[in-house]
Specification:
The chain is an alpha+beta fold. It has helices at residues 3-24, 37-41, 93-99, 111-120, 131-144, 147-153, 165-176, and strands at residues 29-35, 61-68, 162-164, 181-186, 192-201, 208-209, 222-224. The strands form 2 sheets. Strands 1, 2, 4, 5 and 6 form a 5-stranded antiparallel β-sheet that branches.
Length: 228
């Protein structure tokens, strides 16, 4: 086999290997997803365990920052060589524990949750954000869109009362500037309750944008905002 032909074959194989990785890291926007702990813990769908650091504050917690495509699809697990590195969040650890708590069982320090979020979602945004930047971006976005304050300012409180789905959407739209996606779950009594809020963010992970596509959520026209 001639050397030039060998080089050609090698380059072709390398291109075939790298192309899926490059495509996997190409995305159109982020979903920034926050969840209400009262709905997580008051549902048949989940067992609820407080973090080892104690009961989280009665506030929305980060679920994740997820790269997404405009057609509604999304990339996942894009780089098996990019493992979660806890040293990358050392400066943001206290904020992570406060703003991004894990409520899954058994009780944990959050590392398993954050590792999952990085390896499934974060690795697909490495073309824009490294690991440190990824987690810091999520923390900043939570501060930027203080959902609980926006709802409280509109008279919508976590008091087990029912509010119209449209009033919740409008309160968040008014505060953030864009219509959110709302996801509900059901409590033990079968009531539809406010569970997760989806906001769309540009590929830099810094600016809220109009959602190219909103996630499908099954919510009643009137939903409960459960206590926590």
């Amino acid at each position: 086999m001639k050397p030039s032909y060998s080089i050609f074959i090698f380059n072709l194989l390398l291109l075939q290997y790298l192309s899926p990785l490059c495509l996997a890291q190409d995305f159109d926007f982020f979903y920034f997803v926050q969840q209400w702990p009262g709905a997580y813990c008051n549902s048949k769908q989940h067992r609820c365990c407080y973090p080892k650091t104690g009961r989280p504050s009665a506030d929305f917690g980060i679920h994740g920052l997820w790269p997404n495509y405009k057609d509604g699809g999304y990339p996942s697990n894009c780089n098996s060589n990019s493992a979660f590195d806890r040293t990358q969040i050392s400066e943001a650890l206290s904020s992570m524990q406060k703003d991004w708590p894990s409520l899954s069982c058994p009780s944990s320090d959050g590392l398993r949750f954050w590792s999952h979020e990085w390896e499934k979602h974060g690795t697909c945004s490495e073309s824009e954000l490294d690991q440190k930047e990824y987690f810091e971006a999520a923390i900043k976005l939570k501060e930027k869109a203080n959902l609980l304050n926006l709802l409280n300012d509109a008279g919508i409180e976590a008091n087990d009362e029912f509010y119209s789905l449209e009033s919740i959407r409008e309160a968040i739209r008014k505060g953030v500037g864009f219509t959110p996606g709302i996801q509900c779950n059901k409590d033990s009594g079968g009531h539809s309750q406010l569970y997760q809020v989806y906001l769309c963010v540009d590929t830099s992970g810094s600016e809220f944008i109009k959602c190219p596509v909103l996630p499908r959520g099954k919510c009643s026209s009137s939903i409960q905002f459960p206590k926590f």
